[in-house]
Amino acid sequence: MAFALTALGAALAVALELFEALAIVLAVALSRRPREAILGAVAATAACVALGVVLGPVLIAQVAGTPLKLVVGVALLAFGLEWLRKGVLRLAGRRSRSDSFAEFVEEREALEAVEAPVPGRFDGAGFVIAFKGVLLEGVEVILIVTALAARPAGAAPAFVGAGVAVVLTIGLGTVLHRPLRRVPETELKYLVGLVLSTFGTFFTAEGLHVNWPLGDAALLLVLAGWLLVSQALARALARGGVARAEVPA
Q1: Which of 33, 95, 102, 163 makes a 20 to 30 Å CA pair with 63?
Q2: Concatenated DSSP letters for 172-222?
Q3: What is the pLDDT of residue 43?
Q4: What pTM did the predictor assign?
């Protein structure tokens, strides 16, 4: 159970973050130059890999046992609740639906308004935009996967899920922006929020010396609890049961 949920959470989180990075890289490649877009993406990927190689061993070496569970649990809960908050707001119609294709179009239009690169010269602006876009999304991927992998027996499913997501995203990227239109990102990001919040709650409680009576099977109960609470909140917001104040991003 824990293996499947860990792999699912890692796969969805990585795939969705990579889709957002892909939208930026495609926008740079199609609006300016593909070479600089690819170089920026590769440089950012190398930086993220270096961060991941350093962060995982340091976290495990410095924090072990029960304190590690608490650290991992709090980190996952922080990520999960943020994804879940945005998912609830989107499902309730209080926030625009997540759409990487719309982000691609917006980014492309903004880039087309920028001064065109000089022929024969390195397009520094395109490189920086691609690098920054991939780096920001990649750092969140590294933090989530590291947190999932740092828990006991979590490395294998976390890396399996992340690997599947990378292969899938690269494969879809070969057909340019068309896959971005078909991905139900709002629902998938909501699911990521549920999974990460579930693990965060589970391991934070274990870090505080709570013994779950059903062991890993208790993950299903925690998941069901977050599902019920989040759905109730989404319905209340959609019906106007909560005051219609401006909701922060």
Answers
A1: 163
A2: HHTTTTGGGGT--HHHHHHHHHHHHHHHHHHHHHHHTT---TTGGGHHHHH
A3: 94
A4: 0.69
